[in-house]
Write a structure and sequence with these properties.
alpha+beta
């Protein structure tokens, strides 16, 4: 048989001829590339062995050197032929196969696309994606998909370019989405993880503010676009291959075990099939079929990679796989069932294996950091998305309306040199404040003549120049603000149970709007004071407000009337400039720092013109205020430091992830002992009526602390029952709260009225109130206005450097107009000047 017939044709082997017969022929090294001169002689050429053994030459010579056939070489014609037949110089079938494999690998490595071609591919694939999408889906949905996918893939693209990937290109896949491809044989594991995260994480970060802005600005397209971006990017983080989350888990976990990788791929295929069935998308099912068929090959490759993981492997050169590495991987493949794989497919497997072996899984610290970013993005997406969607339901389509919270601030200057006060004759327990502003005091007095003489006699009202205050009593059969809140607790519970499943928020929303709905002046006893609106001229409501360059000022002959009610009832403040800083601080501390109030009790303030409290009653209030404040650095520095030490020890001992109620109860008991010691020691130093108040409070504190201890013990018992596997009935929590919680008022109200509480049967009850105060500097006032960022009326107090404002908050008052009048008179006698009233009114359309 002809020898040449035993040798299959190989891919253009290089045959080098030297004129020096003594020189030995350099064998082709594993590092040489096909068709390249690595000998340095400058004489090279290509020749193919003819399959028919004829010895005819195939191909043309290169350069000046003749190219010999195998038969010419065997004839020994010429001194150079001897070197050709030296040991190892004859090409074998094995060498030919490896040469083909190297060429196939190089073809994969060197495959590159120009920038213009990449752009054309992106445009064409995008056009096909849009055309296919519009045929099946809504065009608006397709346009949003394109925007979301472009932003997502742009993140991958930028990250790959930053980390030095080659041949990076982006393209769309009809019905599936988009992708970015690139190649890098020498990249660290953490960088590869960042490439995976660079798509979904920025998408989530941008989508949440976009959705929030859509709700705030009532732009549906922003909400929909942000919602789609959040949904797609969150789904992309699922640990299912081939999603980004799946590749992150593959890099950090699955790649460490062939079994895990196989399980992960099977789960991904099952998820694709389930999604295909759920969405009735046959196209996705067709994509899953080849993935199923490739599972055996994938498992074998994964096993081979795991076996080679700890073996030394030549590092990439010029971003290419070294020939020696290709030979090594090929030899390993030959020993597995992968050996019969076609050359082109085997080259792809080698590229995949080499990249997997070179890019090792990140270390423990890097893996932990990657998981923190990955898990954090997942949690932010889910929690943030749910919060935004709940907010949308509550504020746009649910319980609340966004404009329900919009309000205007008002600053009304008071002319305390022109006042007229009338104290109502009817008893009153709670009221709203009505404020009316006229062009002049003459107009105000003329308007008052339209009111009923009987009402003017029954209800308190006061005039400060062209401004008029009046108290609007809250009827006994009506609902106060507190009653609305209590009723809503019951109402909302039933409504949530019965209606939320049907997305019917109308009734609940209306009840919530009642909390913000202002009282219409036309429905009160001052109805005739407010004029009906005229069309035009900027009048917006029945109160006669006019929007103009000078703020909200009444039109000539008309009034601006507000009834400060609803949730804005607590916005009433009265301000005045103090004669000096010392007086401001002294008045605020002595007269406007009452102990807290609860329930129905109210103190008669020290500035009440009727039945003002005695000094003894004021001293008793100060005792109560000290006891309520408890342990402070001023009252008990040693106990304060001891309590601080216990808190620090508690925080360092108790682990939030493994909360132990027994240990927590032990610390709580020690802190309760400190509180009891402080109160007992303080009360022991008192005498007379102050000691009596101290003992009242001590009994209250003992019962209150005992209740806390009982609740803690009950919590420990329930936790132990749960740990023992005992099933708790639905009354377990109610059993723990069965005892009535101690109320301080029940311990302080006695026959002797040691604290000067108001008596509702006396006329002085008109002045019962709870008012607190603080002192503001000019800087405080400016910061306050900048922080509020609200439009205010043109007339506001202007402070000079060194001046102080006494700022008083009216929290509760039986008779609002009487309280404000008494405060103005009290402060005026002490040199305060430049008074103004501040309050807030809603701007929403509650009709």
């Amino acid at each position: 048989m002809n020898r040449s017939n035993e040798i299959r044709p190989i891919l253009r082997p290089t045959i080098r001829l030297r004129s020096d017969a003594a020189s030995t022929r350099a064998l082709p090294s594993a590092d040489s590339s096909l068709g390249r001169d690595v000998s340095g002689s400058g004489i090279s050429g290509y020749a193919d062995v003819a399959p028919n053994g004829s010895g005819s030459r195939i191909g043309n010579s290169i350069g000046e050197s003749p190219i010999m056939s195998a038969r010419d070489a065997r004839a020994g014609d010429g001194g150079a032929g001897g070197s050709f037949f030296e040991a190892g110089s004859v090409w074998t079938p094995e060498q030919g196969r490896k040469s083909e494999l190297i060429a196939a690998v190089r073809a994969i490595e060197n495959k590159s696309t120009g920038g213009f071609t990449k752009f054309i591919v992106l445009l064409v694939s995008l056009a096909v994606f849009v055309a296919a999408g519009v045929a099946w889906w809504d065009p608006w949905m397709v346009s949003m998909l394109v925007v979301v996918l472009l932003f997502h893939e742009a993140g991958h693209y930028v990250a790959m370019r930053m980390f030095g990937y080659r041949n990076v290109k982006m393209f769309f896949i009809p019905f599936l989405g988009a992708a970015v491809s690139g190649r890098h044989f020498n990249i660290s594991g953490w960088k590869k993880a960042m490439v995976y995260l660079a798509g979904p994480v920025p998408g989530i970060v941008v989508s949440l503010p976009l959705m929030t802005a859509g709700i705030a600005l009532e732009k549906d397209w922003m909400l929909e676009l942000g919602g789609m971006a959040l949904l797609l990017n969150t789904l992309n983080l699922l640990p299912i291959m081939p999603l980004d989350g799946g590749w992150i888990m593959h890099l950090t976990v699955f790649s460490r075990s062939p079994i895990l990788e196989l399980v992960a791929r099977v789960i991904g295929i099952v998820a694709m099939v389930a999604f295909s069935i759920f969405t009735e998308s046959r196209f996705i099912l067709f994509v899953a079929i080849p993935l199923v068929l490739s599972l055996p090959m994938t498992y074998r490759v994964a096993k081979l990679i795991r076996r080679l993981r700890d073996r030394p492997l030549p590092q990439p050169e010029r971003d290419e796989i070294p020939d020696a590495a290709i030979h090594l991987l090929d030899d390993e493949i030959q020993a597995t069932p992968l050996a019969p794989t076609p050359t082109a497919n085997k080259a792809g497997i080698i590229v995949q294996m080499y990249e997997s072996l070179i890019v090792r899984p990140p270390g423990f610290a890097a893996t932990l950091a990657i998981w923190m970013v990955y898990g954090g993005a997942f949690v932010i997406a889910i929690v943030g998305g749910m919060g935004i969607l709940v907010g949308r339901d509550l504020f746009r389509d649910g319980i609340f309306d966004m404009d329900m919270f919009d309000a205007d601030s008002h600053s009304v200057p008071l002319d305390v040199d022109d006042t007229r006060f009338h104290l109502g004759t009817d008893p009153i327990d709670e009221s709203y404040l009505a404020v009316a502003r006229f062009e002049s005091a003459v107009d105000l007095e003329a308007a008052k003549k339209r009111l009923s003489r009987e009402d003017l006699e029954k209800y308190t009202h006061v005039r400060f120049g062209n401004v008029w205050f009046a108290s609007i009593p809250i009827e006994g059969d009506g609902q106060t603000e507190d009653e609305l809140v209590v009723d809503d607790d019951v109402f909302l519970e039933d409504e949530f149970d019965d209606e939320f499943g049907e997305d019917n928020f109308d009734a609940v929303r209306e009840r919530m709007r009642e909390l913000f709905r202002p009282v219409d002046p036309a429905e009160t006893w001052i109805a005739n004071l407010a004029q009906s609106p005229n069309v035009g001229d900027g009048i917006d409501d029945v109160a006669g407000d006019v929007e103009g360059e000078n703020g909200r000022m009444p039109r000539l002959g008309q009034s601006t009337v507000h009834v400060i009610s609803g949730m804005h009832h607590s916005s009433i403040q009265i301000r005045a400039i103090a004669p000096d800083p010392e007086t401001a601080n002294q008045v605020a501390e002595e007269y406007f720092q009452m102990p807290g109030v609860a329930g129905d009790r109210l103190y008669l303030p020290a500035w009440s013109p009727l039945d003002a409290p005695t000094q003894q009653q004021i001293d008793c209030r100060n005792v109560l205020k000290t006891l309520i404040s408890g342990i402070t650095p001023e009252t008990a520095p040693e106990l304060f430091e001891e309590r601080k030490r216990l808190y620090e020890q508690q925080y360092s001992t108790i682990d939030d992830d493994d909360y132990d109620p027994v240990i927590a109860a032990e610390f709580a008991a020690q802190i309760r002992d400190l509180q009891t010691k402080f109160t007992s020691d303080f009360v022991e130093g008192l005498d007379g009526e102050q000691a009596a108040v101290g003992r009242m409070y001590l009994r209250y504190q003992q019962d209150e602390l005992a209740y806390q201890a009982k609740v803690e013990q009950r919590s420990i018992d329930i936790r132990a029952r749960i740990a023992a596997g005992e099933e708790l009935d639905e009354n377990a929590d109610s059993e723990m709260m069965g005892d009535e919680y101690p109320i301080m008022d029940d311990y302080l109200i006695g026959d002797r009225n040691l604290l000067g509480l108001s008596d509702s049967s006396r006329r002085s009850h008109h002045f019962a109130s709870h008012v607190s105060g603080d002192v503001l500097t000019a800087e405080d006032v400016m910061e306050e206005r900048e922080y509020a960022d609200q439009d205010v009326d043109a007339d506001v107090i202007t402070l000079n450097p060194g001046e102080r404002i006494l700022n008083l908050h009216v929290h509760r008052a039986t008779d609002q107009a009487a309280t404000l009048s008494a405060i103005v008179a009290f402060l005026g006698d002490r040199g305060f000047h430049t008074f103004e009233l501040q309050y807030v009114t809603p701007t929403a359309d509650f009709e």
